[in-house]
Amino acid sequence: MENFRYLHVLALLLFTNLLRPTTVVSSFGNETDHLALLKFKESIVADPQGFLNSWNDSVHFCKWQGVTCGIRHQRVTALNLPHSNLHGTISPYIGNLSFLRTFYIPNNSLSGKIPQQVDRLFRLRHLNLSLNILEGGIPDNLSFCRELIIISFGSNRLTGKIPSEIGSLMKLVHLNLEKNNLTGGIPPSLGNLSSLAVLTLPWNNLVGTVPEVLGRLRSLSSFAIGVNDLSGMFPPSLFNISSMKDLSITGNKLKGSIPPGIGQNMPNLQKMLLGMNEFSTQIPASFSNASQLQELDVWGNHFVGQVPLSFGNLPNLRWLNFGYNNLGSNSSNDLIFMTPLTNCSNLEMLCLSDNNFGGVLPNSSNSGNDS
User: Fold this and answer.
1) CA 208 to CA 128: how far, in whole Å?
2) Sign of CA pseudo-dihedral 328, 330, 332, 338
3) Which residues contact 275 (CB under 8 A, 6 or more apart)?
4) Listed residue (128, 91, 79) closest to 107, CA to CA
5) CA dihedral in degrees (45, 51, 52, 54; nearest 10)?
6) What are the φ and ψ backbone dihedral angles of 270, each rounded to 5 degrees?
7) Residue 21: how many CB atoms within 10 A of its CB?
8) 257-371 domain in CATH 2.60.120.260?
9) 20 to 30 A Cα–Cα from 226, which one of 18, 31, 168, 271?
10) Residue pair 119/95 in contact by the 8 Å Cβ criterion
């Protein structure tokens, strides 16, 4: 009987000791998160709207404004402080929030560099630092954050090249780097991102050609590279992505032609902006098969031939810009496409300037709306 009691006590002690490391680690992790948040607050030099006033020891840090914790471990899983008018920098201690899944602080006035320590955030899925005044380069080591779904750094002052390592983030769905000072080319490695739906790179200083491999991105719905210094042949494969809704490449030096079957190839197309490039050949009549089309802008290219009558079959058409091309042939029937356009009751803007149109405006174009 005595031996049984001894064994029972010994087993109980062993079981208790087995539990202790879990408790110690959890407590340590909570304190690590607490300290990281305090360091983040220290790096904020101005908080005019008082969003961080709740960040004090009167309540648990999981109840601080903008902080979300997991129920099980009470570790920080999200930091959401958008539109908060915060001034300062991003503390490198952010890398100690090892359970962080969402880091969402757009539309503030945060400056300095993106901390290299973000590479420790192995669980990070959503990273949005847009609409700040961040400088320096995009960290190469973002590739360590294998769970990333969204990267949004738009409207900052970032410099340097787009890291080719981003092409290894196989879960990435959304990449927004617009309105920065990025240089170099578009990395061909981005063609590996089979889940990518949004690729937004306009208003930078990018050069070189558009990689042909981007045509592999069969889930792409939005592709924007306008206002850069890109040149060469635009990959025809990008005109064959059936999921595409928004294709915007305005303001480069890109060459090519619109495939005759564009409407069948891109049935979900809503916006196509090709202005200020070097595209040529005719404008396809098959655009009418893209029944959701709202905007078509081919201003400042080298398109020739007649404007198809079929544009009148697009009920959602709002914006149609054919200016500064070589359309028409100075003949009396150049403007007959205007008559079916009267069916487009949502049309707000029609530009035909600086082409080779002859003839007179049809009487039908003077009735209906003022487009």
Assistant:
1) 27
2) positive
3) 250, 251, 297, 298, 299, 300, 301, 321
4) 128
5) 160
6) -115, -30
7) 9
8) no
9) 168
10) yes
CA 354 to chain centre: 34
Q: What is the pLDDT of residues 231-289, one digit of tens each?
A: 999 999 999 999 999 999 999 999 999 999 999 999 999 999 999 999 999 999 999 99
Closest CA to 325 of 367, 350, 365, 353: 353
Q: Residue ranges of the domains in the chain?
A: 1-183, 257-371
Distance CA 190, CA 197 (A): 12
Contact 116, 91 (CB under 8 A): no
Instruction: Please check whether the two domains, 1-183 and 257-371, share a CATH topology.
Output: yes
Amino acid 246 reads: D
Q: Are strands 76-80 and 67-69 parallel, antiparallel or unpaired?
A: antiparallel
Rounded to an integer, what is the distance from CA 148 to the centroid of its chain?
A: 13
**CB neighbours of residue 231 within 10 Å:** 16
Instruction: Determine what percent of the chain falls in helix, strand and coil, rounding each to the nearest 5.
Output: 25, 20, 50
The token pair that represents 282 in the structure block: 């005719």
Structure tokens at 56: 């004090």
Per-residue DSSP letter, 109: E
Determine the pLDDT at residue 7: 45
Rg value, the chain, Cα: 28
What top-level class would CATH report for the domain 1-183? Answer: alpha beta
253 and 230 in contact (C-beta within 8 Å)?
Answer: yes
Q: How far apart are CA 220 and CA 242, in angstroms?
A: 9
The 10 Å Cβ neighbour count of residue 353 is 11
Rounded CA-CA distance 188/339 in Å is 45
Q: Is 183 helix (H, G, I), strand (E, B) or coil?
A: strand
The per-residue b/e assignment along 279-311, b for 16 or more CB within 10 angstroms, e otherwise, is: beeebbbbbbbbeebbbbbbbbbbbbebbbebb
The parts of the chain modelled with pLDDT lower than 50 are: 1-7, 9-27, 367-371
Cα–Cα distance measured from residue 352 to residue 324, given in angstroms and rounded to the nearest whole number: 8
pLDDT per position as a tens digit, 112-143: 999 999 999 999 999 999 999 999 999 999 99
pLDDT of residue 35: 96
Task: Name the DSSP letter for residue 357.
Answer: -
